[in-house]
Design goal:
It is a single chain. With about 80 residues, this protein is mainly α. It has one domain. It contains 3 helices and no strands. It is elongated and about 60 Å long. It starts with 13 loop residues before the first helix and ends with a helix.
Length: about 80
């Protein structure tokens, strides 16, 4: 199955471009950059979700370990 692609125009530092050109074959550069962007986007999404969870945590009541264990046991009994 062919994947669609778009050409984007963006700037990178000269040093980065030179190293990319010296280390990566011309046919592989787009793949490498695409994979790097996919990894960074996943990292950004994880960070954003972590921030949301931390905000929720601030608003939630604090529970002791015993209270958590009790709630998990109750939930397991329902199944």
């Amino acid at each position: 199955m062919a994947h669609s692609a778009r050409k984007l125009n963006f700037m990178i530092k000269n040093e980065v471009a030179e190293e990319l050109e010296s280390l990566i074959a011309p046919g592989q550069r787009s793949r490498l950059v695409n994979e790097a962007i996919v990894k960074e986007l996943a990292r950004f999404r994880r960070h954003a979700q972590t921030e949301k969870l931390m905000e929720l945590r601030k608003k939630s009541p604090k529970l002791s370990t015993d209270e958590i264990v009790s709630a998990v046991r109750k939930d397991r009994e329902r199944r």
